[in-house]
Design a protein that fits this description.
This protein is of the alpha/beta class and 382 residues long. Helix content is 38%, strand content 18%. It folds into 2 domains: 63-244, Thiamin diphosphate (ThDP)-binding fold, Pyr/PP domains (Rossmann fold); 256-380, 3-Layer(aba) Sandwich (Rossmann fold), CATH 3.40.50. The strands form 3 sheets. It has a 7-stranded mixed sheet, with helices on both faces. A 5-stranded mixed sheet has the order 9-11-10-13-14, with helices on both faces. A two-stranded antiparallel sheet has the order 1-8. β6, α9 (210-222) and β7 form a beta-alpha-beta unit.
Length: 382
């Protein structure tokens, strides 16, 4: 009114019109019969419908690749397979990312599809969701998994809930370089998968080897649901394996038995798989199942139940801190659904409930590996 763009009469007219529209909408809404609850329908609506076709390699050709190379390979082949896939992250274009996983991608795919972003994780993830709404696919790289805190709202309130709310898929994969063991301190070493494990609507994968690193990543891009893809930094250049050169996928939600025995079961994932196998070599009289979960959400309850029935003793191992970790949920589930098969309490081993120290000696004390042998021996005494 001060600028004389509107007078009081016009303002009153606009308000009257808006009030009429609101009241008409309310009247229409109040005519609706309240929905009848159906638990199966509610659970079904959490994820966009998707039946995963597991794709096998087209040939027997294999090449020895490091963990980091397998991730890069899967990312490159997914870009070739999905021409609507856009990669976003800090310094991932010409520089190739802080870990060099996307090195050479700009030359192959161009800067329209391999995009540098500002230091604003919330904006990057939100942009990924926007691309999905427009029918695109997006990969968002967190330079370190720790930095995902800046994009937490976008993940747990937008990516995770958008299909449940109005049937919109969130075709976004968030890559999460994670884990300790590199003396990088409390802000570049966290294992934060449990933060998201509690959130319906997300899917979480955490490979422990090059074969699964490529296959799970490729599978995640085929699924229209939002994924958190955890990749342990210490594994990048420390392990290697001969894996298929061709494109392939690994079944989501399916654990893998990587070691077989009868004395106990170690249920784990990520770096825990390697710790378990290393410590078992120091216990020649002990034979154990080592179950690599691979997918954390949804996790393979059938595989866990099968190994519980076989050995009757279970240790859940993870790098994340103990309290409120994924191991707590698995242990509770076993106690509720497989108590009759147990000969001992379900035990857990995990990192200390502290921040992650910088100093290497303190960091190793923080991690569970040094306590794992004693925990196994304690479990076997029951």
């Amino acid at each position: 009114m001060q600028e004389k763009l509107l007078d009081q009469k016009q303002i009153d007219s606009i308000r009257k019109k808006l009030k009429k529209e609101i009241e008409a909408g309310l009247a229409e809404a109040f005519k609706e019969t309240p929905p009848t609850p159906n638990t199966l329908t509610e659970l079904h609506d959490v994820y966009a419908p998707f039946e995963q076709p597991v794709i096998t390699p087209a040939s027997d050709a294999k090449t020895e690749k490091r963990f980091i190379d397998a991730i890069s390979d899967g990312l490159r082949q997914s870009m070739e397979r999905h021409d609507n896939l856009v990669l976003m992250g800090q310094d991932i274009a010409d520089y190739g990312g802080v870990f060099k996983i996307t090195e050479g991608f700009v030359q192959q795919f161009g800067k329209e599809r391999v995009r540098n972003t500002p230091l604003c994780e919330s904006a990057i993830i939100g942009t990924g969701l926007g691309l999905s709404i427009k029918g695109m696919k997006a990969m968002v790289e967190m330079q370190f998994a720790d930095f995902v805190t800046e994009g937490f709202n976008q993940i747990v309130n937008n990516l995770a809930k958008i299909h449940w709310r109005w049937g919109q898929p969130a075709d976004v994969v968030v890559r999460m370089p994670t884990g300790a063991g590199t003396a990088a301190g409390p802000f570049h070493s966290q294992s934060n998968e449990a933060w998201f494990f509690h959130t319906p609507g997300l899917k979480i994968v955490y490979p422990s080897n090059p074969y699964d690193a490529k296959g799970l990543l490729c599978a995640a891009f085929n699924d229209p649901n939002p994924y958190l893809y955890f990749e342990h930094k210490l594994l990048y250049r420390s392990i290697k394996a001969h894996i298929p050169d061709d494109y392939y996928t690994v079944e989501i939600g399916k654990a893998k038995l990587v070691n077989e025995g009868n004395d106990l079961s170690i249920v784990t994932y990520g770096m825990g798989v390697h710790w378990a196998q290393e410590i078992l070599q120091q216990l020649p009289g002990v034979s154990a199942d080592v179950l690599d979960l691979r997918t954390l959400l949804p996790w393979d309850k059938e595989a866990v139940l099968e190994t519980v029935k076989k050995t009757h003793r279970v240790l859940v191992l993870h790098e994340d801190t103990l309290t409120g970790g994924i191991g707590a949920e698995i242990a509770a589930w076993i106690s509720e659904h497989a108590f009759q098969y147990l000969d001992a309490p379900v035990m857990r081993e995990a990192s200390l409930d502290t921040a992650i120290p910088f100093v290497a000696t303190l960091e190793q004390n923080f991690l569970p590996k040094g306590r794992l042998k004693n925990r196994i021996e304690m479990l076997l005494k029951f």
